[in-house]
Fold these 3 entries.
Entry 1:
Amino acid sequence: MTTINQQCGRSFSWERVGMLYKFNSPWIRKQASVYLLFSVIAALFLLLAHNFSGQMVVYGILTTVISYMLIFSPLIFIKGGDSRMVEQMVPVSPLEKFIFYMSYLLVGMPLVCYACPLIAEAVYPYLFGSNDEFVGYADVACLNIPSEFKVINVMIPLAAMLSCLYCVLAVRTNRIVKAVIWTIGVQLVMTVAVTAYTVKEAFMLGYNAGLNGDEPMSKDEMVSTFLHSIAGDSVFFMVLVALLVVYVVVMSCLSYRALYRRNL
């Protein structure tokens, strides 16, 4: 019996990638529409709820929800019944499937989820001035948080998303439940590690201030001092980034292997 791998040969074809997209387009359009709608709502809230007392909190909640929507976006590729059987018969090589999945998850979905909120954040200072509380807090954070921390903010959702993709591709039964549990577990472990470090730094900052008899600081001074403290010691972040990079590479390789086995 000729396998799909043998039918596709060794050559890469964008035409076959397009064929896979056409097959998945009904599910992709539905997911992209819902995600884009939520992204627009978050952006409009940031711009229209100016001077709302809980603006930063609500906007933070909305962007967090968008982050989890992005993490669980691979669930769209879970199909059952005839759709799953037809998908397995589409003559697309494992590499072509891998490129399609990665392009959709790492390029398409982030654009859909974050383009509107990022544009809103970019135009916010021009609409409300650089002295606004939201702009001032964002500027302090961007200037003082070490680059490793910014990378971690990208790598943790990426690692969780690839964990979800691997479960979708490799698990045969109860894929949704297992993918959700595994993804939340990965996200939780990484978040706890970062949170434990920041709590330790905050405790040591307050403890040392108490020993030195420093005067009580205002909220802005406290935030700035804390961010400077984190920026002064980035070894933890460098180690965590290295581990995350290794994890992402491993999950990517395992996902490709799962695709290869499905094509045999």
Entry 2:
Amino acid sequence: MKIVLLLLLGPLAAFCQPRLVKMQLFDNHVGLMAPEGLSDIRPELWRSKYPDRPKPQLALSDSTGLTDLIGQYNDQDIQEEQLDATITLQVKAIKKSSPGISIVKKEVRPVNGKKVAVIKFLSDGLDERMFNCYFFTAMNGKLLFFLADVSFFTSASGWESFHQSPNSLPHSWI
């Protein structure tokens, strides 16, 4: 069964003005729109940004290292009907592992006929604040998740517009 999730990374476009390109991932089961120029995260950058985490199946970054797209398809069983309960558990886990985060929005919504759980939040990066969009769904009864994050410093003007109206810009992430 093919799943096509069109990921419109609007804040990235607003911050860096990149051209969006279609990416096919996970044996062409997932299609998403992402900023042009994302490439595999260099091993030294991965270790510096995520020192205690193994590198997932998908780990992309822009040339500056300020924007990341991470994805993993794993063996954790999940059905679409479980997404509402799972999003609540995920928010609790995120807050426990990173007490300084601020949840901007959480919801389960349809994307191209599939239910997708979305958590948008602000967190501390290595030396800057980050805007994060964590989203997950069921694919063939297993968990498929992505985390897209962008540094506040990618563009001051883009961040100012987001900061003044934090619920408007994140709607365009997916």
Entry 3:
Amino acid sequence: MLVELTLSVKCKDFYQFLLDSLVSEIVTYNPSFTKDNLCAGFSYSKNLKGKIGQKSETVVKIERLIANSVYESSVTSDKGVFKISYKLEDKGDETNVIYEESYKGNGSLNQLNYKLVSNFYKKKSRKKIIANLRGAENYLSSKEENKCLD
């Protein structure tokens, strides 16, 4: 799935928001982690709970990390590999965000299941991604406004 959206925030601020969110998640699973360790190739493990209560150990790997430009990661489980990508284009006071996600199932049954289920949830997933991006935009905009008031 691909979502392209222009946000009314500076590219460096949105990129920093992505990094801060990522570091916050990593610290949850690895309390000794510091931001200095964040680079392409870094990976960490976490347990996820599926929709029907199944627990699955996953490995999250930072695939690409280019300042103010690209963030890509993969989440590998026993079912397959889920990849997400944020590509950012600096437009001055705006940022064009290209969000993409994909899944490659381990085995044809997992892949077929994903294709069938994703078609049902495509519209809902797209709306959720847009809402999350707009939420980040609103958060960063209000943060900037509060900075101006100080």
